[in-house]
Structure formats: C-alpha cells, structure tokens
Design brief:
The chain is of the alpha/beta class. It has twelve helices and twelve strands.
C-alpha cells in the first residue's frame, strides 16, 4: 500500500536528521569523496528516508548515488505497486534507478532476503560502486539483538548490527523508527507499507509488536536505551577479543597449537575458534554460542584425538597436539 503525499524540504526535523546522518557517515568513515553508493530502495519508510537524506548530502560530501530495487513478487500486486512507486520516487529525486523482477517467486522471506542482497551486489559490481547502503534503523538493532539473545547468541550476537559490514553501510542505524516516521510526515514524503511486517507468524514481528512493548511497559520504560548500551559494551569487548584472536591465528595460520590455545583465557579461546571458522568458511552463519562452548570443552584436555562436527559441514579435529579445521563442501 502506497501512502502518497506532496514533497516538502525545510523543516527542523530535516536539519536534525541530516546532521545525525552526516555525523554517522563521517565518524564511521562510511563514504569517501568520489565513492558511488547503491541505495537499497524497497519503498518502505526507512529506505525512502535514507534515499532522501543521502540525496541531500550528496553534493556536500561528494559521492554519487544509484538506487536499486528488486521486485521479488512475494506480495503479488502490492509488490508491483511498490515497484511503480519506487520508479516515480526515483524520478522525483532525479536519481538513477536499477530495478528488476525475479523470474520466480521465493519460497520464503529468507530466500527473498538472500536474492535481494545478491541483486544489490550484482548492481554494485556492474556500476563500479564502492558501497551498498541499507535503511536499518535503531529499532532494527534492538530487534536483532533480542532475536540473537533468544537464539542463544554469544558476545558477537549481542553486539548487534554494525554501521559497516564489508561493503554494506547503515547510515540510519543511530535513528529511531519513530524519528524516521516523524521526518517523513513533516517533510511530506511518500512511502509504502508492507503488510507482512504486521504478520505475527514471523518471530521478528512478534518481538517488535509484542515483546518490546511488554518489556518497556511492564519492566523498564528505558528498555530500548538499555539494550543499545548493552550492544555498545558488547561491541567494544568483542572488537578487543577479535583483534587478539586474529593476532594468535596470524602466528599459526595453518592450524592452531593445542597447548598454546589452552593457555589462553576462556573468552579468547572462544573468539579464536570463531575467527578460525570464519577464515575457513567465510561465514559464521548457523554457528551459535553453544557450538563454540561445546568445542572449547572438547579441546580442554590434551589426551586423545577427538572430532567435533558443526553446522554447514564444518569439522574441528584435535590430533597430535594441533587443532585443525575442515570444511566438507559436499554438505
């Protein structure tokens, strides 16, 4: 469903949000002069706000913008309406748009998400762009941390979403969804509503519409702020552990000496295993805190040869005083 309003620019919220996003870009070094950024434009409020703000900062910070939209067809006619809206919005902002429709309907939201990121990366390469910008907000951060917590995440999971992950940047991560909606309303910017965001069948929707309001109302009115503070502490601690773990692995790139690893603090043991798994497989997907903890316990003694099977065909072998990691590509 498209909410179509007239455009307007010069409001106080415009200047406040502009300043916040500009600070986020500069403090986190998300864009450099001369960069080209692909903006993932779904048509929803967050992505519309992101496109409008970056367009307003384009000349001052000297970067180029290309909009990208993938019509995955999950919502039938509504998906097509979103596509039409995005085309109209791109013309109003006078920005280039690359839009595409999948030739098959994804079987799930997760499949649609993967297709969207593959599409964005393809556009980035085709256009020679340096970055992809998504509209993740402060509220997305809170929901993600709670989702990770419920799934048994460790320190990295509690760190939540980062301002930058490889080529993907999130300039709105310091902005609340409430502020984004207020910005859109005061500046009379149109946007689309995705009805699936209200569907309680999805865990994230229940966290957004049920769990967070309950925790805020019944337990802590400053709950959101508390979660964001926790994420900051987790990020700082995790960054330190990651740096130390990478130093240890750099000295032993082929495999890890068991006795030297056993002498590490337990927190560093965990992170060293996580980094070794990431180096081998290029991802930590489906690797949870419980897997790492079980592996740490397996490697606690120096006696005997043992093997630990992990998701995605990963194996960790303790043999002859070394820790070796393998990836079964057939799985």
């Amino acid at each position: 469903m498209v909410i179509d309003l007239a455009f307007g620019f010069w409001h106080l919220d415009f200047l406040n949000m502009l300043s916040k996003v500009k600070d986020t870009l500069q403090e986190n070094k998300l864009l450099k002069p001369g960069n080209t950024v692909i903006i993932a434009l779904s048509g929803g409020p967050d992505s519309v706000c992101l496109a409008h703000l970056l367009k307003s900062l384009q000349k001052e910070l000297e970067f180029e913008i290309i909009l990208a939209h993938l019509n995955h067809g999950l919502r039938g006619k509504e998906s097509d309406q979103d596509n039409c809206f995005v085309q109209k919005f791109a013309r109003r902002l006078n920005l280039s748009l690359v839009d595409e429709k999948l030739d098959h309907k994804p079987k799930s939201e997760e499949e649609a998400r993967k297709a969207r990121y593959q599409f964005l990366e393809t556009v980035r390469k085709q256009k020679g762009a340096q970055k992809i910008a998504t509209g993740h907000s402060q509220d997305d951060q809170i929901e993600t941390i709670l989702l990770h917590l419920l799934r048994g995440a460790g320190l990295a999971g509690l760190s939540g979403i980062r301002y930058q992950n490889n080529r993907i940047i999130r300039p709105l991560l310091a902005c609340s969804h409430q502020k984004i909606l207020a910005y859109l309303k005061k500046n009379k910017l149109p946007f689309c509503l995705d009805k699936t965001n209200l569907d309680p069948a999805f865990t994230r929707n229940r966290i957004r519409h049920e769990l967070i309001p309950l925790l805020t109302r019944e337990y802590n009115p400053n709950f959101k702020k508390s979660i964001l503070n926790l994420a900051l502490l987790a990020q700082e601690t995790n960054q330190y552990l990651t740096a130390r773990a990478r130093e240890f692995i750099a000295k032993n790139p082929a495999n890890l000496p068991l006795k030297s690893w056993q002498a590490l603090p337990r927190a560093l043991k965990r992170e060293t295993l996580r980094q070794a798994i990431f180096n081998l497989s290029g991802s930590l997907q489906d690797i949870y805190a419980v897997h790492i903890e079980e592996t740490v316990n397996m490697l606690a003694t120096s006696f005997g040869n043992k093997k630990k099977n992990l998701p995605r065909g990963l194996q960790i072998l303790k043999k002859d005083g070394r820790i070796r990691l393998f990836l079964n590509k057939k799985q």
